[in-house]
Design brief:
Blueprint: H1 7-18, H2 25-28, H3 33-36, H4 40-50, E1 57-59, E2 65-67, H5 71-85, H6 88-98, H7 126-142, H8 145-166, E3 173-175, E4 180-184, E5 190-193, E6 205-213, E7 221-226, E8 232-236, E9 245-249, E10 257-260, E11 271-278, E12 281-286, E13 289-294, H9 301-304, E14 309-312, E15 325-333, H10 339-344, E16 361-363, E17 372-373, E18 383-387, H11 404-409, H12 423-441, H13 444-461, H14 466-473, H15 484-495, H16 498-505, H17 510-517, H18 528-545, H19 548-561, H20 595-611, H21 615-631, H22 666-674, E19 683-686, E20 691-694, E21 700-704, E22 709-714, E23 722-729, E24 732-740, E25 749-752, E26 755-756, E27 765-773, E28 778-782, E29 787-792, E30 795-803, E31 806-811, E32 819-820, E33 837-838, E34 846-848, E35 851-855, E36 864-865, E37 868-870, E38 874-877, E39 880-885, H23 895-900, H24 908-924, H25 930-942
Parallel strand pairs: 20-24, 32-37
Antiparallel strand pairs: 1-19, 2-21, 3-4, 4-15, 5-14, 5-18, 6-11, 6-15, 7-8, 7-14, 8-9, 9-10, 11-12, 12-13, 15-16, 17-18, 19-20, 21-22, 22-23, 23-28, 24-27, 25-26, 25-28, 29-30, 30-31, 30-37, 31-35, 31-36, 33-34, 34-35, 38-39
């Protein structure tokens, strides 16, 4: 028998597939006896599924790459502290409420993660998934048990929620006015269903109830007896005016005969409500006082006949809210009680007063368990606790809201997030959080919950025609499903269930896949973040099925976004959508670069790199990580909020908002994840362990267990323009592949143990050093930075500054574009930095024309200018002004642009030669006079230049 797969192998294999937070045995010593005991056949199958043959390079698990002090470790610590301190019971509140469980007094976070947030809280539950993923990554990265404990609490609670959803609702017993009471937690959608005989055909009646409302929603019913929206009788604690109202009708709202109170019921306090009808007189009592009387009533309960719906807490109008709060003692009498009898009910149970129990119905709510309530009237009308939506269609269902959003999506033809807001997107976040939790802590409950969710989704979606699925997935917002395909395929690599792989394919959006596979750009007008994570999943489907169209479509899609729709910081989208290809300047606004987009483009880039080691993918990774992702996290501690941007406006003078919208947004969720996995792509290894890729220059220590070595990277990059890698452990032969950034146009050098390595590093490539490495070997990489500009594709005069990998932004409150000239003291290398003045004591800070420029990565609240207008009015060389206007061609290219396009120059003579030849060309073209041309050349000859 072959040896079983170790826990370390399983987790590393799963991490290869999922690029999620695995924890390796080598680093932690944690192992599962159950996993160790698996049979070889199962283990081999799992390993094969989790390590796609198509991946020519593989990532390292998070616990194999330790961050060392630097900008990433500092940012991460802020998020680690947030994850350590935030009360997870607040996140669990909406799940527990949906299942009718006690919330323990926890208050939901609000914003998108609560019933009062945007679109009625229709996205609630998503943030909990993000938080679980963040905790899993925090635990994998640090090994701190506090994160594992918090994961255990959340997984245990979610397991309880699923169990509660699988069964009929059960009473939530709380302290009542006189004894026990039944609480309907807000968000539980629970109500009490009474038998149809409850009114007994009575023409005279009294209905009495003790209620303790916990929410101030209008039209939530205390009771409603009716058949439909035409024939009914109800009592609400708050009508449109916020006061109690009783009404009955046989002809709909227009025929209601009603009684309205005079003051709102207090929240979280017990109030007594009673209604009496006798003859033509109806009276409404609040806390024993008659607050409304109608002596002209022509209707009574007998006129309603036998009614189908007899409810406490639910309305016959589907749009009305369910009553949130507690019920104690509900009685119905077949006569109108006197005012004195109503008064007596204020201090005693009905059974202890002269009125006695209701003779038509009497519910004490003495029960402390179960889902039924005994009738003490003697008529045996047992009531039952029910959900407005019935219950899940499958035992694997898990959500923070009813299954109704999933059901309604199947018949939708256009998006309306106030009714259905991306339910499969939310399911993805929960699913991924659970899978990450399992991979990090080996909690079998998390895996079972995740597997059950996929079983449930397959049971729904596999029954739908393909045309229905295509329509659903093409609907804006409502049909958004995020990265669910990636996570389902990752789960399949562990479970091996054929249904799970089949489920992943049910999310094919053929119109998008086919267009991108044919390299046809149809992105204009599409919601950016609805579509980016789809392609990471499709790459994983390629891995699992071998279907080439998935990978081809993903590669082509990447090229449609990067660079044609990319801002300098590495972000994309304006107001969440894409515009036409190549339009950058024309889309600058205060709602650019949704932060989720950068997060998901990073995931797609690394996934594509696993298949094709094109350096462009890691060039983009560095750009987005060192700029937008780092800069989206505020440099400030906060126990309540992660402090992450939603949009990053690129308009002049924009101030970043780190507490966006109402909170708990998608971008704050991905921001928590980004900040706890900064090290995930610093190093990759070739599939056969013959090479190590150094993708990012970041202070860190790699433990490469297969080779028995460590690699410690020491650097203050990007504040330092070099990095030192030191080999530790034993000896091992492998290729060391050092990324040469595309911006590193000159001066990239490598030494090993002090000796220069031969070869010519090319910008935008990997420089390979191959040898047998020994402990103590030291590799020194030098990456000189140059200040350069990047021009907007649709307006070359609109530019952004880069110093090496770092985007420098101006800090200036002006809301107009800054006008900047940069050639005035440009160096022979083409470096524009000499035109700026360093700020003493502040690395990477410079001033120009009175404005301070600083790294975008700094999470401040300063008004910033990411783009500026280039203005070079005169030909200036080495700070010497020729006095000659800098002419321009019809396309905006200036004389100085053409001269400096020839940089770097070996020496001053080479620059002067370039000036002379360019001037001659412009003079010949009639763009410059002979006299002015001679003046420009003479100025260039006389000037002194920085290197």
């Amino acid at each position: 028998m072959a040896p079983p797969l170790s826990r370390r192998s399983l987790l590393q294999a799963a991490a290869l597939a999922a690029a999620t937070p695995a924890v390796s045995l080598a680093a932690t010593g944690r192992a599962s006896a159950a996993v160790e005991a698996r049979q070889a056949a199962t283990a081999t199958a799992a390993a094969a599924a989790a390590a796609p043959a198509a991946w020519t390079v593989r990532p390292f698990a998070l616990d194999e790459v330790a961050l060392r002090p630097g900008i990433f470790a500092t940012k991460r610590q802020l998020m680690l502290d947030h994850g350590r301190g935030y009360d997870v019971n607040r996140l669990l509140q909406v799940f527990r409420a949906n299942a009718g469980l006690s919330t323990g007094g926890a208050v939901a976070p609000g914003g998108w993660e609560g019933l009062d947030g945007e679109a009625n809280g229709n996205l609630r539950g998503h943030y909990t998934g993000h938080f679980l993923s963040m905790l899993a990554q925090a635990y994998a990265s640090t090994g701190d048990q506090v994160y594992a404990d918090r994961i255990g609490t959340m997984v245990g609670a979610l397991n309880d929620v699923r169990e509660a959803l699988r069964r009929d609702p059960r009473m939530l017993s709380v302290t009542g006015k006189f004894g026990t009471a039944q609480e309907n937690v807000r968000g539980s959608y629970q109500y009490v269903d009474l038998p149809s005989a409850v009114l007994g055909g009575a023409s005279a009646i009294t209905l009495s109830a003790w209620v303790k409302p916990t929410h101030n929603a209008n039209w939530a019913r205390v009771f409603d007896f009716g058949n439909n929206n035409t024939r009914y009788m109800y009592l609400v604690g708050r009508n449109a005016g916020g006061v109690p109202r009783f009404a009955l009708t046989t002809s709909g709202p227009g025929g209601e005969q009603g009684l309205d109170g005079t003051a709102a019921l207090p929240l979280n306090q017990w109030s007594h409500l009673a209604v009496t009808i006798g003859g033509s007189t109806g009276t409404l009592y609040v806390n024993g006082t008659a607050v409304a009387t109608n002596t002209s009533m022509t209707l009574n309960p007998a006129a309603l006949g036998t009614l189908a719906n007899n409810w406490l807490g639910r309305s016959n109008f589907s749009g009305d809210p369910v009553f949130a709060g507690a019920f104690d003692e509900f009685n119905v009498w077949s006569r109108a009680l006197t005012a004195a009898e109503i008064t007596a009910l204020q201090s005693n149970r009905a059974s202890a007063t002269s009125a006695g129990r209701g003779n038509l119905a009497s519910y004490d709510f003495f029960e402390t368990a179960g889902g039924t309530f005994a009738d003490a009237s003697g008529r045996g009308l047992t009531a039952a606790l029910r959900r407005t939506w019935g219950g899940p269609s499958h035992p694997g269902f898990l959500a923070a809201y009813p299954e109704t959003q999933f059901i309604e999506l199947e018949s939708m033809t256009s998006g309306d997030y106030t009714k259905v807001w991306a339910p499969y997107y939310t399911a993805h976040k929960i699913l991924k959080g659970l899978l990450d939790a399992h991979l990090a802590t080996d909690d079998a409950r998390a895996l079972d919950l995740a597997s059950g969710m996929c079983d449930w989704m397959y049971s729904r979606l596999s029954k739908l025609p393909d045309a229905t699925l295509q329509r659903m997935w093409g609907i804006f917002s409502s049909g958004e499903f995020g990265g669910i395909v990636e996570t389902i395929v990752d789960l399949h690599s562990i479970t091996g269930k054929a249904e799970h792989l089949a489920l992943a394919k049910l999310f094919d959006l053929d119109r998008l896949i086919d267009a991108c596979a044919a390299n046809t750009d149809i992105l204009d007008g599409l919601h950016a973040n609805q579509h980016i994570p789809i392609f990471t999943g499709y790459v994983r489907l390629h891995d699992a099925t071998g279907e080439a169209r998935y990978l081809t479509a993903a590669k082509n899609f990447w090229g449609m976004v990067i660079p044609p729709r990319l801002y300098g910081i590495g972000g994309t989208s304006t107001a969440e959508f894409w515009k036409a290809r190549g339009v950058i300047a024309g889309t600058i606004s205060d709602t650019n670069a949704e932060t989720c987009c950068a997060h998901n483009l990073l995931k797609l880039s690394r996934m594509l790199f696993f298949h094709d080691q094109d350096p462009k993918y890691m060039d983009y990774y560095e750009r987005a990580l060192y700029n937008q992702v780092l800069g989206s996290k505020q440099d400030k501690a906060d126990a309540e909020k992660p402090l992450v941007t939603y949009f990053i406006g690129l308009k002049p003078g924009h101030v970043r908002d780190y507490t966006p919208k109402q909170g708990t947004t998608c971008c704050e969720g991905t921001g928590m994840e980004s900040a706890t996995k900064y090290q995930d792509s610093v190093y990759f290894k070739k599939a056969d362990n013959s090479a190590l890729y150094v993708n990012l220059y970041s202070p860190s220590t790699l433990t490469w267990s297969e080779k028995g070595v460590t690699v410690t990277q020491t650097t203050d990059y990007p504040r330092e323009q070099s990095s030192t890698l030191t080999i530790g452990g034993g000896s091992a032969a492998f290729e060391l592949k050092l990324r040469v950034p595309s911006w590193a146009a000159g001066g990239f050098k490598v030494t090993v143990n002090g000796s220069a390595v031969s070869g010519t590093p090319a910008a935008g490539s990997y420089f390979t050093v191959s040898r047998t490495w020994r402990s103590g070997d030291t590799v020194r990489v030098t990456l000189p930075f140059r200040l350069r500009v990047e021009k907007a594709l649709d307006d070359p005069s609109l530019q952004t500054l880069f110093y090496g990998p770092i985007n420098l932004v101006g800090r200036n409150s002006s809301t107009d574009y800054l006008q900047l000239g940069l050639y005035r003291n440009a160096g022979l290398s083409g470096d524009l930095l000499p035109s700026l003045t360093p700020v003493s004591g502040k690395p990477l800070h410079y001033t120009l024309n009175g404005t301070e420029f600083a790294p975008f990565s700094e999470g401040t609240e300063d008004p910033t200018h990411a783009y500026f207008r280039r203005s070079e009015p005169r030909a200036v060389f080495g700070t010497t002004d020729s006095g000659v206007a800098n002419p321009a061609k019809s396309d905006g290219t200036t004389l100085l642009d053409e001269i400096w396009a020839g940089a770097p120059f070996a020496n001053k003579g080479a620059l002067v030669t370039r000036v002379r030849s360019t001037v001659n060309t412009w003079v010949s073209a009639g763009l410059l006079s002979q006299t002015d041309g001679a003046t420009v050349v003479r100025t260039a000859e006389q000037a002194t230049y920085a290197p």
